[in-house]
Amino acid sequence: MDRNPFSEAEIAGRLSKVRKALAERGLDAAVFASPENIFYLTGLDHWGYFAPHLLIVPLDRKPVLVTRSMEKVTIENQVKAAEFRGHSDSETAADLAARVLAELGLTGKRIGLEYWTSGLSHGLALKLEAQADAKWSDVSGLVDRMRLVKSAEEQALMRRAAKVTDAAAGAAIAAIHDGAAEQEVAAECVAAMARAGGHAPGFGPFIRPAARLGEEHRPGAMASIAAASRSSSSCPAASRAIMHRLAG
Fold first, then answer.
1. What is the pLDDT of residue 205?
2. β-strands 54-58, 29-32: how paired?
3. Contact (CB, 8 A) for 172 and 233
4. pLDDT band at residue 232, thresholds of 50, 70 and 90?
5. Strands 110-113 and 135-138, how do they pair?
6. Are the C-beta atoms of residues 41 and 55 closer than 8 Å to each other?
7. Same domain, 130 and 221
8. Is the Cβ–Cβ distance between 93 and 54 less than 8 Å?
9. Can you state the angle between helices 93-103 and 122-131, rounded to 10 degrees?
């Protein structure tokens, strides 16, 4: 999380594919709001995604990433493929994005907007549409479909993530015994994750005895694990890598 995990060539290739897809739809630009897709197109890896991020991708100019001003240092250190524009907390990302669209000469143009994402509230979308004179079009799913095909760089990262997952899950399993506290098991899981080269998790880990197995997103408790209770551990060190494990 301290650096961009992708090469400049990798990011450039992704942006080229996006621009080609936009041109095929007759669009002049697009605004992406999904944290996953902004990460994919810029490599920005941080914990600031709880606040709106709007990535403006024109066909023929450098993308512009709009979010809170306080993220300036992180973004300028990590992101080379997009210009940073920060807004104060007295306005919204939509307010600044509307001005940036005008500065880019996109007034009255056909612009795509990623409507179906948790990164863009209904109110923020309405505010952007009200302030920016454009012919709006839904581009939800455009980048998501591109992400289904993994590049060589992504495959290498996924293999590394799988090794981190193995270490973290293995440590959690080894720590489970009669009377072990759920939080102690979680601590061993996270420690092994960090030692194996993983980042601090933003979600989980979830350590649950059989009695609470159905509580999918509840963190571990101080309770001890009873001998008769079979535990389940879900350590988040790139746990998605397990689902996409590649041979070799």
1. 85
2. antiparallel
3. yes
4. low
5. parallel
6. yes
7. no
8. yes
9. 30
Torsion on CA atoms 126, 143, 163, 184, rounded to nearest 10: 10
Q: What is the pLDDT of residues 104-146, one digit of tens each?
A: 999 999 999 999 999 999 999 999 999 999 999 999 999 999 9
So what's the pLDDT on residue 199? 87
**Considering 102, 125, 147, which residue would you say is the last residue of a domain?**
147
Which residue range is the domain that position 228 belongs to? 152-243
**Same structural domain for residues 131 and 203?**
no
**Which residue is listed with tokens 């509307």?**
98
What distance in Å separates the CA atoms of residue 23 and residue 193, rounded to the nearest whole number? 43
Tokens encoding 230: 């079979």
Q: Which of 112, 128, 147 is the last residue of a domain?
A: 147
**Whether residues 135 and 29 fall in one domain:** yes
pLDDT of 19 strictly over 90: yes
Helices (H), the chain: 8-24, 35-42, 72-78, 93-103, 122-131, 142-147, 152-175, 182-195, 240-243
Residue 115 lies inside a defined structural domain of this protein: yes
Among residues 172, 139, 120, 182, the alpha carbon closest in space to that of 27 is found at 139
